[in-house]
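Inverse folding, one chain.
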């Protein structure tokens, strides 16, 4: 079942994000990796910045999380993670499909350039990489991230959007 998260889900969301992000360790630039990958304060800041999290629940247990953020003319998909032991079971695809139904705006997704599995996942679900020039413009316009993260990231856009 997919549902909007509640305050009671906060600790589990944080756990899922940090467990799922463990795949980045040793893959993304070392200067971008930190432990934990996301702190409780950083997660709270994302929520305060209007990232709305949806969770995937199986038999009362949360197994995946994905955020959506309205940024005016576009919608961002943010912080998409599934517990490591639940990967490749369709949870991410179902969450992404659900969130796509919540908006009629173009959808943008940012991820690490070195995360080839994440890029392949989004491409499988109908997103395409934008050019480097467009990526730089979009990341600076719609995300609040350091320049180093802009340099080491990519942006994908729904193929059905203009």
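Residues assigned per position:
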């Amino acid at each position: 079942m997919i549902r909007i998260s509640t305050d009671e889900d906060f600790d589990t969301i944080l756990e899922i994000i940090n467990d799922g992000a463990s795949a980045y360790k040793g893959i993304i630039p070392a200067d971008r990796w930190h432990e934990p990958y996301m702190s409780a304060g950083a997660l709270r800041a994302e929520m305060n910045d209007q990232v709305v999290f949806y969770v995937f629940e199986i038999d009362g247990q949360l197994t995946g999380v994905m955020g959506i953020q309205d940024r005016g003319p576009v919608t961002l998909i943010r912080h998409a993670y599934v517990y490591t032991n639940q990967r490749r079971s369709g949870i991410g695809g179902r969450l992404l499909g659900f969130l796509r139904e919540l908006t009629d705006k173009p959808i943008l997704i940012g991820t690490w350039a070195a995360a080839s599995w994440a890029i392949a996942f989004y491409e499988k679900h109908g997103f395409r990489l934008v050019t480097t020039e467009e990526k730089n413009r979009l990341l600076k316009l719609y995300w609040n991230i350091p320049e180093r993260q802009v340099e080491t990231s990519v942006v994908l856009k729904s193929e059905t959007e203009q």
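Residues 10-21 form the longest helix (12 residues). The mean pLDDT is 96.
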